[in-house]
Amino acid sequence: MVSPRHIASNRHQFTLAQQNMEHNLINRHSVAAII
C-alpha cells in the first residue's frame, strides 16, 4: 500500500512540473510576440 505522504509528494512534484510547463509555454509565446 502506498503511504499518503508518498502520494502527496508525488502530487506536489506533478504540480511543480505542470507550473514549469505552463511557464515555459508563456515564455515562448511572449518571445514570439516580441519578435
What can you tell me about this protein's structure?
The chain is mainly alpha-helical and 35 residues long. The chain has one helix and no strands. The protein has one helix at 4-34. The radius of gyration is 15 Å and the shape is rod-shaped. 0% of the residues are buried. The model has no long low-confidence stretch (mean pLDDT 86). This is Transposase.
* pLDDT averaged over residues: 86
Structural class from helices and strands? mainly alpha
Distance between the termini: 52 Å
The overall strand count is 0
Give me the strand/helix succession.
H
Rounded radius of gyration (Å): 15 Å
What are the salient characteristics of this protein?
single chain; 35 residues; mainly alpha
